[in-house]
Structure formats: C-alpha cells, structure tokens
Records
---
Amino acid sequence: MLTSYDYAFASIVDQAGIDSILVGDSVGNTVLGYTSTIPVTIEEMIHHTKAVTRGAKKALVVIDMPFMSYHESIEQAKRNAGRMIKESGADAVKLEGGTRMKEVIKALVDIEIPVMGHIGLTPQSVNRMGGYKVQGKGKEAESLILDAKAVEEAGAFSVVLECVPRKLAKEITEMLTIPTIGIGAGPDCDGQVLVIHDLLGLFGGFRPKFVKKYLDMREEMDSAIKNYIEEVRSGVFPDDSHSFH
Ligand code: KIV
C-alpha cells in the first residue's frame, strides 16, 4: 500500500501494480503544508480522493477520516463516512483508534462501509501523545494488543500498525486473522504502507528511521527546474523543434 493524493500519482502507482492506495490525511503535511494532520477537513479529503479514484483503475482506494469527523457520536461517524464514500468513490475508510473506537467501527461495518483500523502511533492524537513516538513499549504493549483485538472484533477488514516495536507487531500479526499493514512496525506484518512523498524523497528535512528513500526526487526536480530557468534565460529553450510552423 502507498499513499497518493492526486490523479497523476494515483495513476502511476496504480499502473505500477500496487494493491491498495491510501488517501491519507497525511495530505495535510505532504500537499497542503500544515504542520500536522489535525486541520485536515472532510472537504479536503473528498477533493483529493476524487482525483485519486479517477486515476486508480485496479487498486483498492482507502480514504482517511480526518480528525473530529468521527469523534462526536456514532451518528456523526456514519453520516460522514457515508458522505465520504459516496462523494469520493473510495472503497473503504480508515480511522484511528482501537478499543475506544470499537463501537464506531462496528456501526460503520453494520451499514456496509468497509473499515481499515489504525493503531499504535495515531497522528491525530499527537497532542495527547506529546509527539510522534514509538508506541507499545514495555507495559503499553498489553493495551495495544487489546486495541488490535477490538478493531478485529468490531469487523475491520485490516489494521495499520504505526511505529510499533517489531516483536510486538509480529505478535499482533500472528494473533489476528485480519491483515496487519505496517509502517515503522518491522517486516513481520502482512503488508506495508509508506507515504509516497517519503519513498520518492520529495521532502527535504527530517526523515523517520522507518522510511526508505527509493529516489531523491527533490534533488532531481531542483536540477530540472534550474536547467529550465537557465535555458529560458539564455534563449536555448524554446528552440525551433519546440515551435509551431
Ligand atoms: O495519513 C497517512 O498517510 C497514514 C499512513 C501513515 C498510514 O495514515
């Protein structure tokens, strides 16, 4: 699984053969320039996901429910999840939280909306967690195991494990019957997800330990753009071959 936030990226990722595309609320950091996922709105999620579903012909598309779109009540969660699926064309929603979201997940599954869970480091809880830290270390492991069980019992079809010690992610993966999708959770999960901007090297600054940069796209873009500026200024571009006759 990889994230995408627009038509161009989604069609490339889809044609490359990915199983599933997540329109993550990481769109807030990667595309919209927010410093966290907290400000992302339902409208922004729908806008980006509509573009992704136009580009993705085969992959399963999952849309993230943003902060405060499912926290008030089960009725609110059903209304917003239904709207997001209807308007965006996504196949499933993802929402953050384990035990405390059990009833919400169950209610969405009951109205035929497939749900992917997300436990461990849940970025919408960054203010409570006090930063982006590995979760489930030491005594916290037991509560993460309970979260995983709750998500499965509620009827989710899979669960993201984010920033969880490798051994614990393995234990959870072996315990559950639904697939675990890891990000910073080691190699023993059933699947993996990464933010595409991280994989392609589109960000300059801090890179988390779990990210593998497969390309330095920022560097490549910088050099292509500087090349263009130079060629326009010097009159090399456009030449005769890029002109109409
Ligand atoms: O928003 C997102 O991109 C995510 C992934 C990091 C799993 O939730």
---
Amino acid sequence: MENSETLKILKETIDKLKITKENLREMRKTNKTFPRQTNTRILDAFQSFAQFDRAPIWMMRQAGRYLPEFKEIMKNRDFFDACQDPFIAAEITLQPIKQFEIDAAIIFSDILTLPKAMGMEIIMDKEKGPVIKNKLETIDDINRIKSPDPESLEHVYDALYLTRQALQGKQTLIGFCGAPFTVFSYMVEGETSKMFLKTKKWLYQYTQETRKVLDLIAKESAQYLINQVKEGGAQVIQIFDSFAGQIPSIDYKEFVIPSLRILLEEFKQECPTTPLIMFAKDQNGVEVILTFLKMYLGETPLVDGFQLDSNVSDEVLIKIIESDRTIQGNLEPGVLYGTQQILKKRVSQMIEKLQTTRRYIINLSHGLTPDHEVEKVRLFIQESIRQSKLFKVREVLE
Ligand code: 1CP
C-alpha cells in the first residue's frame, strides 16, 4: 500500500482483515460487523446501573500537534488531504490511543468538513487555522450553500469504519460535527474571529436569513451524524458549539436552540440509542441547560450528556444529575502547563465534585493545544485514573 511507511499503528488491522484502498468502501458497505466491545466504560457512563471500576477518560483534541508523531505524519500533508485519506485519518485517530490509557477515540476530521462539502472553499492555514475563501457576505450568497454531494463525505465514514475495526472493542469511537451556530460563524467570518462582529450583524440584522441558514446546516448535520453512526460505526456523537458563548443566553435560546432542536430531533429519530453529548461552550447557565434537559422526542431525551466548562455552577450540576444525564469535563487545559502539584490538586478537586454521579466522563474543559507537553498529558490521565479509582473505593467503604 502507498502509505505503508506511515501506517504503523493501522498496519496490523489492514493485514489481518486484508483491507486495501480499493476494497475498503465495498467492505464497509457489505460487512458491518465490528469486534466485540470489551471496554464499555464510556457507553456505561450513559446508564446509571452498569458496573463501575473508575470513570472513563478521553480528551478533546487528543489527536493533534502536541504529539511528535502527529507533526511527523502531517509534515508534508495538507490538513484536508489527510482527513480525506481514510487510512491517514484512522492512523492519526489512533496515535493517542496507542500511548495513553484512554477509553475513547474521536475521529480525526474537523467541524469544517461538512461546510466544505456544502460549497465553502476552505483551506487550513498552518498559522491562522481555517480560512474560507468564499465566505457569506450578502444575503444572496446564501444561495451558494448546497446539500453535499453524498460522495464527498464517504471518506469520513470509511475512516470511522477502519478505526472501529482497529480499536478491537478496546475503546469507544466518537463521531462529531460542529453545531449550526459555530459553523455559521465560520461561514460569515471566514476565519476564527475575536469579536464575532459579522456573526452578530447577520444574527441581529438579517435574523430571518440567519435562521434559514442555521436550519439548513442543522438538517445537513443531522444526516451527516446519522451516516457517521449507520455507515461508519460511530458509537457516541459529540456536537461542538465552540462559539456558543459569544452571544447572550437569551439570544442563544431564541435564535440558536430551534436549529439545534431540528438537528437533535432528526438525529434521534434515526439513532435513538446512540448517546449524544452537547458542548455549548460558555453557555452552561441554568436556563440553557434546562432548555436542553426538557427536550425529548417521545420518551427519548435529545441530549444524553453535557461537555461542561471549568466554571459550571453547582446548580447546573445538580439539575443534570437529577435528570439522569451524563457529565463530561471539566479540567481547564491550562492547568497542564502548571506544576505536578497543582495538576494533581485540581484533578482531585474535579473528581471529588463530578464523580458524585455514576454518569461521569473525565475530560478537559476545552481542547489540547500544540504547546501541551506529552508527559503532562500522560500525568493528567494517570492521575485522573488513580484518583477516580480511589474515590470509588472510598465510596464503597463509607
Ligand atoms: O483529537 C481530535 O479532537 C481530532 C479531531 C478534531 C476535532 C474534534 C479536530 C482536528 N478538530 C476538531 C473540532 C474543531 N475544529 C473545533 C471544535 C472544538 C474546539 O472548540 O476546539 C473547532 C472550533 C475547529 C476549528 C479549527 N480546526 C481550528 C480553529 C479553532 C482553534 O482551536 O484554533 C483549527 C486551528 C483547526 C485545525 C485542526 N483541527 C483538528 C486538528 C488536529 C487541527 C490542528 C491541525 C494542525 O495544527 O496541524
């Protein structure tokens, strides 16, 4: 195989299952059997009564530039080219799994993969991050947004399938997409913004048009997530609304949540048993959380878990626990720049507070960045596992 030099981790799976570039898609379409799930910690965190040795753990942006092997594989590669090659995408997804004791893999892709397929011309600049060449400037530009050509996203499902096979049931596979508001922000700002002035102009000046675009993104996102589960084998879904905190809760509830409801309802209609984690960054106020908690499709909750920030209030935590939903989070990633002492102390405080529910997944409050040190990341994981086990033992003894 062309990439055999770089596919160090995947190699065993490819050889064993005789997967090639040519037969991968056909195999995925005809054989959806996956290895038996032996590590069920993440899936169990969505149920109250499953057995429990410790809380599961994974980290947002766990595959990325802080890993030397990520830098190596990306050295001469364009970001989206890497995403579009299922073998490379799977290899990168597996890089953190290979070396850390973590319970989930999140597929190497981006929240901009979908808008790219919807007609946005996006490049990933090594310094600036995503840059959109044909951002939405006038209302008429909305007409440029189109439904993705189904072929254009098949590579994501191929990468998921390959990764799920390679995980051998030892970790849970997470699929994801950006939330309509965050994707819309990129579409109008054209890059990561500081002030979000264009987003706000659209939202408050062209409210109807903005809502139209949000609904459009929501519908396509739902289909994209359904396919990640049914075509690719994703076992859990996370929705990233990274820019949710840029507008007040009152506007988030009125203008943004209706499009999220479309996304969630359409997804749950097709995938009622797949746990879905919502990350509305900096919108962890009780009003917004309660709105999500009240959302159901029949008996099925539309949101199964919440990725929470480091400053979430006790009031919100209690509401989530009382509603039998899962908590994920919430260590400030900056703590990993600090001394071992502060890291251990903050991990201990986090576990004391959040492991009071059985439905808990250890994570950071935001993603790892290129300047994180691998050994500090390892310490965070080891310490979290140690403290989680200790907490569990203490609970049993008390
Ligand atoms: O391990 C993983 O998490 C890999 C999969 C992943 C995910 C879940 C990537 C790969 N990106 C994302 C989500 C994503 N992308 C979000 C939501 C989560 C968040 O809030 O961080 C956002 C806002 C983006 C947009 C994006 N992609 C940016 C700008 C925002 C930022 O943080 O600066 C940038 C720089 C990217 C590039 C990107 N995406 C993923 C990686 C590993 C990288 C870095 C590429 C590189 O440095 O070479």
